[in-house]
Amino acid sequence: MELSQLEAFLEAVDRGSFRRAAEALFLSQPSVSTRIQRLEDELGVPLFHRMARGVRLTDMGRTFL
After folding, report:
1. Tens of pLDDT, residues 10-46
2. Alpha helix (H) ranges present in the chain?
3. pTM for this prediction
4. Which helix (H) or strand (E) holds 31?
């Protein structure tokens, strides 16, 4: 687990979207998605429900938060 993954996770939680999290972190959206995907892979659980208009925490995502 890396600090950059946690930063991306927290921004996505706060902003409700990987795109807006990327803008806040001055990164590309694919970079944020990759960081969160790697975090999910390390934890072995999905942290977000990915929807057409943003993201929402899963139960495990709320627990992790």
Report:
1. 999 999 999 999 999 999 999 999 999 999 999 999 9
2. 3-15, 18-25, 29-43, 59-64
3. 0.93
4. helix 29-43
